[in-house]
Amino acid sequence: SHFSEGECFPCPQEGCPMMGHYADRFPTKLKRINQKYFLNTAADPPFTSWRQRVFIKLSGVKKTRGDINLVFHDKEGNRKEYQITSGILSQDEIYTKYLDVEINPKLVKKVEFLWIKTPFTLLWARLGADTVNITHGEDGHR
Q: What InterPro entries does this protein's entry cite (predicted)?
């Protein structure tokens, strides 16, 4: 679906659809009929998540096998790990993914880049990230 592939992010120029208690304060949006809205939530209360677009360009070896994960750490010591991709990794490729992160971007202390090498690879060269961009919010701020 367009939603799961991140094609609805960031919100269109006319703004995001409004939900919940204050939705009736946006009468022009209430006039739209037969529209479907989707919402990803976190697994645990308060079920909040922030949609973020992750963009990673690798540096180092030309090709190897492994996983790229990002770990979000908040100021209270909580951590959440998300897989960006798995399998053959290539320096020439740019990896993008939409994540619904369960840590408020305002509370993120650091984001850790993890490259997990599969044990059967013969290539032990160091691989790193040349660029990691994370965009969040309806206006697509970095």
A: AB_hydrolase_fold (IPR029058), Lipase (IPR013818), PLAT/LH2_dom_sf (IPR036392), TAG_lipase (IPR000734)
